[in-house]
Amino acid sequence: MKNSTIIVTILIIVLGGIYFFTRSSSDTVDNLDDTNITEDGNQIDDNAVATTTDRGSETIIGKSAGGRDITAYHYGKGDTELIFVGGIHGGYSWNTVLVAYEMMDYLNANPNVIPENINVTVIPVLNPDGLNKVVGIAGRFTPSDVSTSKSVLTSGRFNSNTVDLSRNFDCNWQATGVWQSKSVSGGSNVFSEPESVAFKNYVEKYNPSAVVVWYSAAGGVYASECVGGVLPETSTITNIYAKASGYPAYESFDFYNTSGDMVNWLANINIPAISVLLTTHSDVEWDKNQKGITALFEYYSK
Fold this sequence. Notes:
Layout: H1 2-31, E1 35-37, E2 43-45, H2 52-55, E3 58-63, E4 69-76, E5 80-85, H3 94-109, E6 118-123, H4 128-135, H5 150-155, E7 176-179, E8 182-185, H6 194-206, E9 210-216, E10 220-223, H7 232-245, E11 249-250, H8 262-268, E12 273-278, H9 286-300
Parallel strand pairs: 5-6, 5-9, 9-12, 10-11
Antiparallel strand pairs: 1-2, 3-4, 4-6, 7-8, 10-12
Helix pairs in contact: 7-9
């Protein structure tokens, strides 16, 4: 009798274990019905969509040759990304950085101006080394912080490796580029500079719908092109921004050869991009640019 009791107890334990194991496996399968499994075993919600919200309000996309952070600031929650870039020529074009900061202030104060389907990324300083040479401080600055030395301003065009960053991209790249009548370094190779690589990696990862880059100084909106001519979408946004802002529109920048140009590289990878050249090296012209920006928002909201 005692042996029979022991046998019955063992059977109950075994059968109970089988039952709970079967239920657990079934529940796991049921719970996975609405998910996918990545190669590393993580579950991904089918309904998850990457937005700038997932990146937070700002992202450090890389570091300069001198070790300074390159920061991108994000606004909006839509799937259509527009990128705005200032300060590729650092302190030489310091007013382009202030335009970008004005835009950031505007978006912070008026978040509802961004249509629901759009997210905006602003990179106010792509060349922090060059900017630091001229203003001597990190972060926000005022015109009173800017050096008045012509030689210092000129040196601020380049990064810490003395490379002109807008001669370092993959569109007709040359080791020695041209700026006005001067020879400048385009880097040892295409994308030799960490700033160029940081921007390239960001663009290739997020595939923006359009990019606007501020330069100075000529006063106009210039379409981008590399070897295949101007993209139709680029022509469209060139004219939209120009008409709204009051700047004249141009199909090409032909003052001198711009080998390795960043905006033309964007055209080379089929991303519509425009260069907005401020009229002088000191005026910010925010009212004009605000109108151009909001016109692009309206266009891409459709």
